[in-house]
Amino acid sequence: MKQFAGLATGLKNDVFLRARLKLTLNYVLVITFILAIFSSLVYVGFSRSFQADVEGSFSSESAQISATSKASTRLLEALILTDGAILVLVAGLGYWLSGKTLYPIKQALESEKQFTADASHELRTPLAVMKTDLEVALRGDGRDINRQLVASNLEEVEKMSVIVADLLSLSRLDAGQEVFNFEKLNLSDLVTRTVNKMNSYAKLHGLTIRLEAKSPLYVRADPLKLQQAILNILRNAIDYSKVGGQVTVTVKKQARLVEVEIKDEGEGIAAKDLPHLFKRFYRAEKSRQHEGSGSGLGLTIAQAIATAHQGNISVTSVLNQGTVVRLSLPRFSIS
């Protein structure tokens, strides 16, 4: 599937090498053209000037012509050597500059390639389950079995719907097409409403949520988008917490920022996984083994929303002790 996705995007390493060499060649051709014109003008100008300066200085015309020819030849050799050295330097510098120029494009296309491959992988699993269930349904004729298969297929469709919705949301955020309706917002109230909304979900997982958000703290934000970011973080904390544990949500002031801290008592995240948490579809090894784990887009979307609010999300974690996620936003100035 990943190989197919790579072919679908048309990405091959030699494509970038050819583009780099072609761009380098263009640099060299342009400089060659400029040097050819400049050197020709210098050569012709020097020859005429030298001939005028030495006119009458030799006993015969042939001696004057010979001296002029030798001087012109030496000048031509010097120009060729100089131009050659310049072209070699330009070729090396051009190759380096073309690499720098193409690198962001290469990175963007490689990210697109990886994104396509990962999306294909995530959608392949529910599709495979549905295909298997439908094949079993075609072979059987029991009503109870068919109802179970329909229920299983419905669950897989819901999973795919979530993935597709997240993909669409990410594409709009990337393209700058997501509309944000900013307003003065009491973050404490928003977090309280969000926690209340997730209390039932937490109870289903045998967890409790403790909220610490007393003082009204204001930010400039889009309520719906910001709530989506907090929901994604809070859902992760619940999904990867131990049964009987507690998730603590705190809203507090930090200098010129307002911070939402979500702390769980779950399995934690390995240090090697922390730098990759905001990559699309990335899930740590323990997360991949977790039953009902998400697609790996929740934190990516949350970070994109935080960035649109001029904020940031940071994560600290200790294995088998828990994880702390902090969403920081600029505090709204009442004045």
User: Domains counted in the coordinates: how many?
Assistant: 2
In the sheet with the most strands, the strands line up as 2-4-5-7-6
Radius of gyration: 34 Å
H/E topology pattern: HHHHEHEEHEEHHEE
- Distance separating the two termini: 56 Å
Structural class: alpha+beta
Largest sheet, strands/sense/barrel: 5 strands, mixed
Mean pLDDT: 79
Quick one: overall form? elongated
Proportion of beta-strand residues: 5-15%
Helical content stands at 55-70%
What is the number of helices? 8
Poorly predicted runs: 1-11
Q: Please report the total strand number as a whole number.
A: 7
Description:
The structure is a single chain. This protein is an alpha+beta fold. The protein has eight helices and seven strands, in the order ααααβαββαββααββ. Strands 2-4-5-7-6 form a five-stranded mixed β-sheet, covered by helices on one side. It has a two-stranded antiparallel sheet with strand order 1-3. Helix 2 runs antiparallel to helix 3. The longest helix has 79 residues. It starts with a helix and ends in a 5-residue tail after the last strand.
In short:
This protein has 335 residues and is α+β, with helices and mostly antiparallel strands. The chain has helices at residues 2-8, 13-54, 61-139, 143-175, 187-204, 223-239, 285-289, 298-308; strands at 183-186, 208-212, 218-221, 246-254, 257-263, 312-318, 322-330. Helix 3 (61-139) packs antiparallel against helix 4 (143-175) and helix 4 packs parallel to helix 8.
Keyphrases for this structure?
335 residues, 7 strands, disordered N terminus, two-stranded antiparallel sheet, five-stranded mixed beta sheet, 8 helices, alpha+beta, Heat Shock Protein 90
